[in-house]
Amino acid sequence: MTADSVRRTVGTMVALLGAIGSAVQAGLLITRGKAICLNEGCRIIEALTRVPPQYINLAGCSFFLLTAILTWLASESKFARRLLGVFLLAGIAAEGVLFGYQNFVAKTFCSWCLVVFALVVLLNILAGSRQALRATAVFVASFVAFSALSFGVIQSEKGDRALDAGTWGVHRCAAPAKQLYLLFSSTCPHCEEVIRALESCNSCNFHFNPIDQVEGLSLSGIDQLPSYDPGVNRNLLALLGIDEVPVLLVPSPEGVSVIRGENRILAFIRAECFSATPLLNVDPSRALDADQSMSIFRDENDGCNVTVDCPSESK
């Protein structure tokens, strides 16, 4: 058996393995609503995709099946060999974008996504040294291009707040003095404590911006919006270099204040939203304000990391 035939056989088996894995993942998502994953990154990435993850896995299954067929026919058909090269370059380009998104925006990696990435890389290597060199160039180019992008989400080009696209619902109060945005996770007990404290809010409108998919909140009187994109909220956290929730955004004519942590957020809303004369109950000496447009106020050990579930006993 020649080296080319060995590479062809191994490549076909690798592609079929990818097709089977993708089909299994799609089937689990359809029947159980949850795929096999070794970490919480899969759940996070699935929550950020516009296309349902089962369709993405079905597309991956089709890609690997076609790759397996083309790999098997490549030794006998020049057209199949060229088409295989194009297919593999398209696959590595897509993986470059997905890898960049996980690295620069989501700040977490999906274990199954990494498995698919490894399979696509291996298929390009098995296709020969020239194909591997082309694939390296395509991956680096797409990854570098993605890393150069900025995902600003506080202000849109129309002048309104682009963050509104990430709002799940709004708790409206009579004669609101402020419009506040709470970035939270459905699995974070610190976020739950902040949400509970808003039951009797009387002077602030609270916009609830989850970083994942939520079904409901333990708070009455919320006007739920017809659609929202949790990716907008994760993009903002990544832009600010913040990896914990809860986070409260306080827009003002001077800029945006970003208040982190359960205790500091509760202190702020008690002073700003429960009194007749709001007073800013934060310590300006702890602000990180390089351009006078954004101030970040921190508190320690009362938040949940965005990449993992925060157990209730952490309180």
Description:
The protein has 315 residues and is of the alpha+beta class. It folds into two domains: 3-147, de novo design (two linked rop proteins) (Up-down Bundle); 162-314, 3-Layer(aba) Sandwich (Glutaredoxin), CATH 3.40.30. It contains nine helices and nine strands. It has helices at residues 3-31, 41-48, 53-73, 78-106, 111-126, 129-147, 189-196, 230-240, 262-273, and strands spanning 169-171, 178-184, 204-210, 222-224, 244-245, 247-252, 255-260, 294-297, 304-305. It has a seven-stranded mixed beta sheet, covered by helices on one side. Strand 6 and strand 7 form a beta hairpin. It is elongated and about 80 Å long. The model is unreliable at 153-160 and 277-297 (pLDDT under 50).
List the keywords.
315 residues; alpha+beta; de novo design (two linked rop proteins); Glutaredoxin; 49% helix; elongated
Say what the CATH topology of the largest domain is: Glutaredoxin
Strand content: 5-15%
Q: Uncertain runs with pLDDT below 50, 5 residues or more?
A: 153-160, 277-297
In N-to-C order, the SSE pattern is: HHHHHHEEHEEHEEEHEE
As a whole number of angstroms, the C-alpha radius of gyration is: 24 Å
Distance from first to last alpha carbon: 63 Å
Q: What is the share of helical residues?
A: 40-55%
Please identify, by name, the CATH architecture of the largest domain.
3-Layer(aba) Sandwich
**How many alpha or pi helices?**
9
Mean of the pLDDT scores? 79
Q: Please write the CATH class name of the largest domain.
A: Alpha Beta
Our count of domains comes out at 2
